[in-house]
Amino acid sequence: MSRAGVRAPRSEVRDMTQGAFVPFSPRRVGALILRHWFVLRGSWPRIMELAYWPTMQMILWGFMTQFLATRSSYVAQAFGILLSGALLWDVLFRGQLGVAISFLEDIWARNLGHLFVSPLRPVEMVAALLAMSLIRALIGLLPATVLAGWFFGYNVLSLGLSLVAFFFNLIVMGWAIGLLICGLVLRYGQGAESLAWAAIFALAPISGIYYPVATLPDWLQPLAWSLPAAHVFEGMRAVLIDGVVRLDLMARAAALNLLYMLVGTGAFMAYFRIARQRGQLLQMGE
Questions:
Q1: Which are the contacts of 158, defined by CB distance < 8 A and separation ≥ 6?
Q2: Distance in angstroms (rounded) separating the CA atoms of residues 274 and 183
Q3: Taking the CB of residue 16, how many other CB atoms lie within 10 A of it?
Q4: What is the DSSP letter of 23?
Q5: Among 49, 217, 256, 273, which residue is least crowded by beta carbons within 10 Å?
């Protein structure tokens, strides 16, 4: 410790500002989750928006499936392929968007500077963003799941315990992409905000949501297999068509997700450190 009246060494000040002496606090994570929850709970348009897109997508693909079922033996064999694909795709999309939107709301409110004059650590913010993403995804998907049974007599729970593996593999992939996008916003400013909506859709054509990966050109298939989502959707079709749970596909998806989370979290932490050193946390906002 430095003596009274003597300025602490520059390295010690830097370490203290980076939270090196502040342990991880579940209470701070909970407080941040509670803050986002109050914002969400107090705005019915936000809640309606969460449920609107999954429900509309489910209805669209449901009626299309009913039409195709009378004209395609493939769809007739497994009526739930398109509906399950639509619902599970929304898990990935909502997982990614839930992380990005929760973070962007703090930027739009110019709240980052206020948060980080407190003892809040970046890893605690990451934990809170992931928790809010899960809450947002469940709020959005539950109405769509109920209406799928009501309108079309399809129960996504027919996927069995494999549904749990599908859900968590997809939402973790969404988390990883969401954290990477948050890092890019910190690094390149609000001009990168559009990635929160655009980035995930760039992966949709090669994720095998509604068709097997084998449908893609040969040169594109290795890129598709590098995505956890491709393994999940192939596993979904195996359950619906063949009645087989492909544990090998789920294991590969989990391994890829571990790598994705390491990259996404690492990028967020690195870009956050750069933004703090440059004083950008106080400058970002509308």
A1: 80
A2: 10
A3: 12
A4: -
A5: 217
Q: How far apart are CA 167 and CA 235, in angstroms?
A: 12
| Sequence ranges of the domains in the chain | 23-282
252 is written with which tokens?
Answer: 């590969």
The per-residue pLDDT for 260 is 97
Cβ neighbours of residue 88 closer than 8 Å, sequence gap 6 or more: 166, 167, 170, 209, 232, 233, 236
Tell me how far apart the alpha carbons of residues 18 and 270 are, in angstroms, rounded to a whole number.
12
pLDDT digits (tens, 9 = 90+) for 138-197: 888 888 888 877 877 777 777 778 889 999 999 999 999 999 999 998 888 777 787 888
Question: Burial, 42: exposed, middle or buried (Cβ in 10 Å; 0-12, 13-18, 19+)?
Answer: exposed
Q: How many CA atoms does the CB half-sphere of 143 hold within 13 Å?
A: 15
Pair of tokens at residue 237: 């079709």
Number of helices (H), then strands (E), in the chain: 12, 0
